[in-house]
Design a protein that fits this description.
mainly beta, five-stranded antiparallel beta sheet, 15% helix, 137 residues, elongated, 2 domains
Length: 137
């Protein structure tokens, strides 16, 4: 569980309401998903996109509202992860994975992680079991 959650809210609305704004928020332990859903309902002319990132690299994504409807795309990063060595040496790394600023790549399945390991130099493969990361093959 994260100690804090970083949220960057980019707001665009009609000129009578809000032309453009940016809010950076940090909340303890959790991100207020219901706040964003209610914001879209109570202020339907407001459009926004909010990036959400857990401090411990365990989840992230975006919440978007447009026309009074909110779409929440915040997800856990995945139950499989590994450390990538020098990913900046590759011009492109086509993969369906999330990655964080510590160079951890998160995958939904073991097979996706194994496919990535076969193409790129990596180490420390881990699997999340009961909210704890354990070594795996």
């Amino acid at each position: 569980m994260p100690n804090w959650v970083e949220q960057n809210l980019h707001v665009v609305g009609s000129k009578a309401d809000v032309n453009r704004a940016f809010f950076a928020m940090i909340t303890s332990w959790d991100y207020p998903a219901e706040f964003y859903a209610r914001l879209a309902k109570h202020w339907p002319s407001l459009g926004f996109i909010c990036s959400v990132n857990g401090e411990m690299g365990d989840f992230g994504g975006i919440v978007m509202a447009l026309g009074g409807e909110a779409v929440n795309l915040v997800r856990d990063y995945g139950d499989w992860r590994l450390f990538a060595h020098s990913p900046w040496e590759h011009r492109s790394m086509p993969v369906d994975a999330h990655f964080d600023d510590d160079l951890w790549f998160y995958f939904r399945t073991r097979e996706e992680m194994a496919g990535f390991r076969a193409r790129y130099r990596t180490s420390i493969p881990l699997r999340r079991i009961e909210k704890k990361w354990k070594r795996t093959r």
